[in-house]
Amino acid sequence: MDYTDEVKRLWRHHDLGSGDARYPAIIRYATMAASSHNTQPWQFRRESGRVWILPDLSRRCPAVDPDDHHLYASLGCALENLLQAGRAAGLEGYPEYDPSTTGVKVDFEEAAPVRTDLFEAIPERQCSRVEFDGEPLTEKETELLTQAGTGDGVSVLLIDNDEQKEQIARYVAEGNRAQFADDAWADELKSWIRFSALEAARNRDGLYGPVMGSPSVPRWLGLLAMKFGFSAKAQNRKDFRNIRSSSAIAVLYSEHDDRRHWIEAGRCYERLALQAAALGLRSAFINQPVEVPAIRPEFARFLGIGERRPDLVVRIGHGPETPRSLRRPVEQVLA
Known about the structure:
Blueprint: H1 3-10, H2 22-30, E1 42-47, E2 50-55, H3 69-88, E3 91-98, E4 103-110, H4 117-120, H5 139-148, E5 154-159, H6 162-180, H7 183-192, E6 193-194, H8 197-203, E7 207-208, H9 219-229, H10 232-244, E8 248-254, H11 259-278, E9 282-285, H12 288-291, H13 296-303, E10 309-317, H14 330-333
Parallel strand pairs: 6-7
Antiparallel strand pairs: 1-2, 2-4, 3-4, 5-8, 8-10, 9-10
GO molecular function, one term: oxidoreductase activity
Protein name: Nitroreductase family protein
Organism: Marinobacter pelagius
């Protein structure tokens, strides 16, 4: 299985089909969404005129995500892609959070097909862990990104002030120091890194080494390199450069700290990232300040959002395309 060929097959538009064949097609688009560590912690269940998006708790990351916040945000990312692909296929979706399953029920009805700019951008969206060029956002770009990142009980702050970006970098650095000092966090991250193209193609999940800026190497060599070069200090140098080079930092935050709003925050992130891609912009997570519980309240006070929970932090700017991760096939994610 050639990794490069698999990437080319995945990251492109696919035939949406007709009739019932549209449902596996739009689920395929849903699997192209973002997820923490590319864990893809979702299952999809089909019923007549309906798709369920359910949490796959076997793919939890308890060290970095002890309350499953990122897991449920990932369901929201998949939901947004599903809805955008549904519209393109002539299926208008109506999502509803279901407390009994902690998943989302989406009922579809026939509608005129509409291929939105966000749908067209699905194969272009990626998490770009590289320096951007620092070019400021235009007023129109800022308006469209703010609109995309706003949802039901979820708001977005777009921060482009250099002094505030520097403060965010300091929070990221503080988060790095806390996480790198946690052996459980480090072991969990290593378990989701796919160091070689062969390993990445076999698993079709996790973080492919070159996506993170490392060469494709055998697992034993990758682990050895991490043993000697994996440090908060090195990561902080990289993160400061990346943040300073960004046009803006987007922070999504919720009115209520519960699973329904976590899912909505993920949906808003995915819409924001798709809008950025449609505008020719790149994006990347810098979630350390919201992942460390001891830092998160102080970060919220800095943002001026009171007791609200900051959900996700994203760099945005102009930059190059970077290597891409794979996704599991539809048949592996059907419940």
